[in-house]
Design brief:
Length: 132
């Protein structure tokens, strides 16, 4: 699925706004995610850390849980950003979760300036685990 420049720009802006809501007092590493669904809606997520570090939820899973919980199905695009110069890519757990909802979904990986690269989730997670 090819995203338009306009869709990419919108998702980067939404992810940057999501990042502003991050709760990252331990790592200080804020992450924002915006996802586009087949119905055209965009949903945001931020990382939410916890004193029990393993209870932390990443921005990507936060956005996906929010969209699914509100009844939106069909993951069309994912955008993830952070406050550094590095174009962030989703962690391993998030790759597995994203894959569950669309094996070909494009993932826009961006840095604080909005520089980005687009990779499909299958490129990010080759030979993914499935129950097929
Ligand atoms: N984090 C995300 O939100 N998404 C990722 O894909 C990588 C890591 C968060 C988790 C934690 O709050 C912080 O970044 C540092 O690992």
């Amino acid at each position: 699925m090819q995203l338009t420049d306009s869709e990419i720009a919108t998702l980067i802006a939404e992810a940057q706004q999501a990042m502003a809501q991050a709760h990252a007092p331990y790592s200080k590493f804020t992450v924002g995610c915006a996802i586009l669904m087949d119905d055209g809606t965009i949903h945001r997520g931020a990382n939410v850390e916890n004193a029990s570090f393993g209870a932390t939820i990443c921005a990507e899973r936060s956005a996906i849980s929010s969209a699914l919980s509100q009844g939106h199905r069909g993951l069309k695009a994912v955008c993830v950003t952070n406050a550094s110069e590095t174009k962030i890519t989703p962690c391993g757990i998030c790759r597995q979760v994203i894959y569950e909802f669309n094996r070909d979904v494009p993932v826009i990986c961006t840095n604080q300036r909005g520089d980005h690269m687009v990779l499909t989730i299958s490129e990010l997670l080759p030979h993914a685990f499935t129950l097929d």
